[in-house]
């Protein structure tokens, strides 16, 4: 099984992914950002044109990791900034794929971003991506407004969504 968590920065993807992984006897959780940050010299911010090659390479590495880990019997949870086209690609490569967009209110995203360590804050980018996610139409992802939910409630909602899927 592959679970894909998406949403703007500070939506709670990493916190939810780490907690959700604990619900399965064998699981792996990682962020696409972890792979992108392997680049130490020549790194390009993901929204810059020159980052396209690095993003493709990171997604290819992630797909290989997912393949190996699911074949070994692990539930894999990945977080990142993914849209429907990327989830469709995952669904074409793997079976039993579930996608969730975490989309709390803009005020919640701003507050969470302020609570991050200084080197991880992205106030402007968080707001731009929140706007983009709010305007997007998702056909393959399930969108969760986690504004009023605790971390445990959001994890419960996702876990229920997976276990009740056809």
- Flag low-confidence runs: none
- Second-tier CATH architecture: 3-Layer(aba) Sandwich
CATH class: Alpha Beta
Total number of distinct structural domains? 1
Overall radius of gyration: 15 Å
Q: What is the β-strand count?
A: 5
CATH topology: Rossmann fold
Shape: globular
Question: Could you characterize what this model shows?
Answer:
- There is one protein chain.
- By secondary structure, the chain is an alpha/beta fold.
- The protein has a single domain (2-163), classed as P-loop containing nucleotide triphosphate hydrolases (Rossmann fold, 3-Layer(aba) Sandwich).
- Helices cover 48% and strands 14% of the residues.
- The chain has a five-stranded parallel beta sheet, sandwiched between helices.
- Helix 1 (13-21) crosses helix 7 (151-163) and helix 5 (106-115) packs antiparallel against helix 6.
- The longest helix has 20 residues, at 52-71.
- It is globular and about 40 Å long.
């Amino acid at each position: 099984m592959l679970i894909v968590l998406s949403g703007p920065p500070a939506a709670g993807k990493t916190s939810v992914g780490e907690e959700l992984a604990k619900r399965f006897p064998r699981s792996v959780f990682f962020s696409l950002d972890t792979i992108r940050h392997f680049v130490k010299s020549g790194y390009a911010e993901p929204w810059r044109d020159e980052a396209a090659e690095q993003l493709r390479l990171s997604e290819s590495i992630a797909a290989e990791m997912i393949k190996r880990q699911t074949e070994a019997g692990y539930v894999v949870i990945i977080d990142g900034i993914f849209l429907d086209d990327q989830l469709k690609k995952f669904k074409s490569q793997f079976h039993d794929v579930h996608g969730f967009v975490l989309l709390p209110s803009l005020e919640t995203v701003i507050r969470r971003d302020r609570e991050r360590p200084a080197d991880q804050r992205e106030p402007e980018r968080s707001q731009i991506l929140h706007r983009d996610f709010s305007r997007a139409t998702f056909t393959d992802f399930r969108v969760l407004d986690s504004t009023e939910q605790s971390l445990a409630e959001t994890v419960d909602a996702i876990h229920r969504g997976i276990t009740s899927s056809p």
